[in-house]
Amino acid sequence: PAGQRSEIPEIAGKFPARILIVDDNPLNVMLLEHMLHKLGYAPVSVENGRAAFRQTTRNKFDILFMDVHMPEVDGINATKAIRNSKASCDPVIIAVTANATDENRHDCLEAGMDDFLAKPIRVQDIVDLIQKWAPRGRETTG
């Protein structure tokens, strides 16, 4: 309804970050890209964990939004590979999943992910996570 629509803040200037979206579902990618564009970011997207590993060893990313369940290489195994790679810049990795159980959250954090985002994704969730992680990355406290 009119008057209840909240403005999406453009936060990229205040919280700069290079962002990688890792998801095999084109609709999920499109939605997350749209939200991030509205926030002022220009994310890069890849379709699986293998491609995410390649990207993070060739380019510096501050934040990865990593789908947990993907074919070829899933988010858990991709995270482990990224964390074990000396070529990776050790980005913040945020699990993105519809399976928001405590067990799944534990598995994601145990694999080396830094945070957890349950679907359906809301813009405010993205804003909160970027404000939490973009200013510091892993190098200042990790």
Provide a descriptive summary of the structure in words:
This protein is of the alpha/beta class and 142 residues long. It is built from five helices and five strands; from the N terminus they run E-H-E-H-E-H-E-H-E-H. Strands 2-1-3-4-5 form a five-stranded parallel beta sheet, with helices on both faces. Helix 2 runs parallel beside helix 3. Mean pLDDT is 89; it is low at 137-142.
Strand order of the largest sheet: 2-1-3-4-5
Shape, per Cα inertia axes: globular
Order of helix and strand elements from N to C terminus:
EHEHEHEHEH
Number of strands: 5
Q: Output the number of helix runs.
A: 5
Average pLDDT over all residues: 89
> Helicity range of the residues?
25-40%
Which residue ranges are poorly predicted, with pLDDT under 50 across at least 5 consecutive positions?
137-142
Residue share in β-strands: 15-25%
How far the N terminus sits from the C terminus, by CA atoms, comes to 43 Å
Structural class: alpha/beta
- What's the story with the biggest beta sheet? 5 strands, parallel
| Gyration radius, in Å | 14 Å
